């Protein structure tokens, strides 16, 4: 997204493809240092970035790891995370690429959210830190193709 920013929350809107349902409509961002120090400073208003699709791949441990799927769990929009397993590059490579998903008909995590990379390991319980740059690139490529399909379906609404 942007350097030194953190996605603090998701924007959830009515789904154009399913008016009785909801979909991710963007992210709420803030400067990373502000996000890390909310308890120690005065309020700094966040910014919003609206988008028909959010791609989320950051699954490493830490305050911002797997932020999108963790927020879906805390909001009650998905049940639970699968929790990352121990490192195993041989299993992680194919697991992360094959499980990257975006279109709801193919097991989308939540409408408007495409999950791949190491965040997917957190969500589905794949081995951690295993995907090398090749698998991360392949996961991103697959996500881009899924995003184009979702955008095309939204364009027809």
From TrEMBL:
Pfam hit, one: Thi4
- List, alphabetically, the Gene3D superfamilies matched: FAD/NAD(P)-binding domain
Q: Which domain of life is it from?
A: Eukaryota
UniProt protein name: Thiazole biosynthetic enzyme
């Amino acid at each position: 997204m942007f350097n030194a920013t953190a996605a603090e929350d998701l924007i959830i809107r009515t789904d154009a493809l399913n008016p009785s349902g909801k979909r991710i409509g963007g992210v709420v961002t803030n400067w990373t240092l502000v996000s890390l120090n909310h308890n120690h400073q005065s309020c700094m208003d966040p910014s919003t970035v609206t988008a028909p699709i959010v791609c989320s791949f950051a699954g490493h441990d830490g305050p911002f790891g797997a932020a999108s799927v963790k927020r879906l769990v805390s909001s009650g929009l998905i049940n639970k995370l699968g929790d990352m397993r121990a490192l195993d590059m041989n299993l992680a490579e194919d697991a992360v690429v094959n499980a990257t998903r975006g279109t709801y008909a193919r097991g989308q995590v939540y409408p408007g959210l495409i999950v791949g990379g190491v965040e997917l390991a957190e969500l589905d319980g794949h081995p951690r830190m295993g995907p090398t740059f090749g698998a991360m690139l392949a996961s991103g490529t697959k996500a881009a193709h899924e995003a184009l399909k979702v955008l095309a379906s939204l364009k027809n609404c």
